[in-house]
TrEMBL record:
This is histidine kinase. InterPro entries: HATPase_C_sf, HATPase_dom, His_kinase_dom, HisK_dim/P_dom, HisK_dim/P_sf, Sig_transdc_His_kin-like_C. PROSITE patterns: HIS_KIN. It is an enzyme of class 2 (transferase). Pfam families: HATPase_c, HisKA. Signal peptide: none annotated. Its EC number is 2.7.13.3. It comes from Myxococcus landrumensis. SMART domains: HATPase_c (SM00387), HisKA (SM00388). Residues 438-654 form the Histidine kinase domain. Keywords: ATP-binding, Kinase, Membrane, Nucleotide-binding, Phosphoprotein, Transferase, Transmembrane, Transmembrane helix, Two-component regulatory system. Residues 652-671 are annotated as: Disordered. SUPFAM superfamilies: ATPase domain of HSP90 chaperone/DNA topoisomerase II/histidine kinase, Homodimeric domain of signal transducing histidine kinase.
């Protein structure tokens, strides 16, 4: 009873619990005290009444993926091949994590006590360090039972007499084949980095593996980078800075130099996340984490082969005892298709016979015919839609041509009715008259408001008592209306007065809006609609504001006159501002009139040339002179069915560097 309460909790090879909290020098003493004080279990000889039992000693914890897979495969084969029931007992020694002779002595003492009265029919041992302990236990407890071993050392019995009744398999880790595969996949490799842990077994294995690699390293002239026996933090730091022409081979990582235990699969995840170069492995349990591949050991296949050998031995076969260790022959060159794509390694470099893992078909390979059908259907739909669009455009073009023909016929009738006695200079006089009418309209409202407020203030002052608050409010309205009327007069005087040109920064949008306010009443009288499309955040222009306003005024008046014969409701004048390219701003004035004949386009800016019977032909000529003096240009187009389009292009100014206002061009005096 004392053994069951204390011994199992202190000396269970599982790495959890108190295994690492008991000092090694006390383990042997505690085991012997338990063994001496514990009574022999009743009926110990009858623990296995029927069937056979097998005891398996493993070097590592059963929680590790490799050990779990190996034991599960072994148990499955034993149960399937044995006639009667069979019991498989598994003891994990944790030899990779626990070290020292005290620990080994404690294990030896514990298993002598635990299995003294429990005789297995066969003893199985995995790995060289475990085989030595198994030989000692068999010699002291069951010298006549067979021992089946699975050793990573093919020359296990080379330097010592081979014990009797021993059969075994050689678990080969073919690092050379893995390196050859790496060199085939990465032909530019010039360096080889090798990763391994710090346990005594790992270090012993490393010496043997490196000896196998030396001929190939010398033949290919590869530089060897030793990443073994390093603390975990230093290993990850080194992995982040490996040279570009490096291939990485990994073995195991059970402990670091401080003796800290690790789970190899978890270390593999951390290492692959940090490593900047492609890595290769020897164990199939880590495939799928990001390794490219290698000569992989399948622990499931190894467990199956060991189970078959154990079955034959339990069946009485003895020829196995006379042969040297046989290779398990379970190594299989495997590559991860996803890792190949990640590192941009062409599949053509993979040698024939290599197995592809995680080779999932692409979307095209999986749904090729469905995609082809969908693309064909989409192409047919696109052709049908394209045909419908073309047909619709043809119909719309025919309708537009019909409307244009009707409009031209009507314009021709109106043109025939004009009298021949219109004077050529009426254009300039009409423009001044239009400005005067706009001025009168703008002044009528504030003057009427001033008169009304003044009369109200007089009545309020004559009242008894006088209502001074309302008088003050009326006087405030008078002042506001007076300022409004003064602004109208100021704008008109600014357009008409003559003074030296000045170069100042102006907003083209503000200039357009001021001219539009002056012409608002005339637009209404002509039955025309003005549509402003002004670009926000427009760069400033530098020049004389009065002259630039004269350009805008001429363009708008020309547009209104061009629409004189268009029926009311269709007279639309569109003004747009934009910044089409860096360093330029553009003003576009487009009317809905009859447009300009192509043969007359080169002549419209010439002095005294006019497309109107009553025009003097000076407005556009003056406008071009002003625009060219400001470093710009004035163009005219006549899109079919869209009236005339006049484009004024001016250089813009960077406001951050516009402190220098010195003239760059000689501007003409205001006309």
């Amino acid at each position: 009873m004392v053994m069951s309460l204390l011994g199992l909790s202190w000396f269970n090879p599982n790495p959890s619990g108190m295994t690492r909290r008991v000092k090694p020098k006390w383990r042997a003493i505690v085991v012997w005290v338990i063994f001496l004080l514990s009574p022999l279990p009743a009926g110990a000889q009858a623990t296995r009444l029927t069937g056979k039992s097998v005891l398996l000693l493993t070097p590592e914890d059963m929680a590790l993926p490799a050990m779990s897979m190996f034991v599960a495969s072994l148990r499955s084969v034993l149960w399937a091949a044995q006639d009667g029931p069979i019991t498989l007992d598994v003891e994990s020694l944790d030899l990779g994590w626990a070290r020292g002779p005290a620990y080994t002595e404690a294990l030896h003492t514990w298993y002598l006590a635990k299995y003294r009265e429990r005789r297995p029919d066969a003893l199985l041992a995995f790995r060289t360090d475990t085989i030595q302990l198994a030989l000692e236990l068999r010699r002291e407890l069951w010298p006549d039972i067979p021992l089946i071993v699975l050793s990573e050392d093919g020359q296990l019995w080379e330097h010592q007499p081979r014990p009797e009744r021993v059969a075994g398999l050689w678990l080969r880790y073919d690092l050379r084949a893995t390196l050859e595969l790496a060199l085939r996949l990465l032909p530019d490799t010039r360096r080889l980095a090798f990763v391994n842990g710090s346990s005594p077994w790992e270090q012993a294995q490393q010496a043997q593996l490196v000896r196998e690699l030396q001929p190939l390293l010398a033949q290919r002239g590869l530089e060897f980078i030793d990443l073994t026996n390093l603390p975990l933090d230093e290993l990850l730091a080194r992995a982040r800075t490996l040279p570009e022409d490096t291939a990485v081979l990994t073995y195991t990582f059970m402990t670091d130099p401080s003796g800290r235990p690790f789970v190899g699969r978890e270390i593999a995840r951390m290492f692959l996340a940090a490593c900047n170069q492609p890595s290769f492995a020897l164990h199939d349990t880590v495939m799928g984490l990001g390794f490219i591949g290698g000569s992989l050991v399948s622990y499931e296949a190894v467990g199956e082969q060991l189970g078959l050998l154990t079955t034959r031995v339990l069946g009485g076969a003895r020829e196995e005892f006379l042969e040297p260790l046989k290779s398990t022959s379970d190594e299989l060159l495997t590559v991860d298709a996803r890792a190949l794509r990640r590192w941009d390694i062409p599949r053509e470099r993979v040698p024939a016979g290599v197995r592809f893992a995680f080779d999932e078909p692409t979307l095209w390979e999986r749904y090729r015919w469905w995609l082809l059908g969908a693309l064909t259907l989409s192409a047919l739909q696109a052709l049908v839609v394209g045909g419908l669009v073309v047909e619709r455009r043809r119909r719309m073009r025919a309708q537009a041509e019909l409307v244009e023909r009707q409009r031209l016929e009507k314009l021709a009738e109106l043109e025939a009715r004009r009298t021949l006695d219109q004077l050529a200079h009426m254009g300039r006089v009409a423009a001044l008259g239009e400005l005067a009418a706009s001025l009168a309209h703008e002044l009528n409202q504030p003057l009427a408001a001033i008169l009304s407020n003044a009369q109200a203030a007089r009545r309020l002052l004559n009242a008894t008592p006088a209502e001074l608050d309302e008088v003050r409010e009326a006087l405030g309205d008078i002042i506001s209306d007076d300022k409004r009327a003064g602004e109208v007069i100021h704008r008109m005087r600014a357009l008409l007065k003559r003074e030296e040109p000045r170069r100042e920064l102006h907003s083209l949008n503000d200039l357009v809006c001021e001219v539009a306010r002056l012409l608002a009443n005339d637009m209404h009288l002509r039955g025309a609609t003005l549509q402003l499309s002004l670009a926000p955040l427009l760069p400033a222009v530098q020049g004389d504001g009065i002259q630039l306003q004269q350009v805008v005024l001429n363009l708008l008046i020309n547009g209104m006159e061009a629409m004189a014969q268009v029926p009311e409701g269709q007279r639309q004048l569109t003004v747009r501002t934009s910044s089409t390219s860096p360093g330029q701003v553009e003003l576009c004035v487009q009317d809905s009139g009859g447009g300009i004949e192509p043969s007359r386009l080169p002549l419209i800016f010439e002095p005294f040339y006019s497309t109107k019977d009553h025009g003097l032909g000076m407005g556009l000529s003056i406008s071009r002179s002003i625009v060219e003096a400001h470093g710009g240009r004035l163009e005219a187009k006549s899109p079919p069915g869209q009236g005339a389009l006049l484009r004024c292009i001016l250089p813009s100014v960077d406001t951050e560097s516009s402190h220098d206002t010195s003239p760059r061009h000689h501007l003409p005096r205001g006309r």
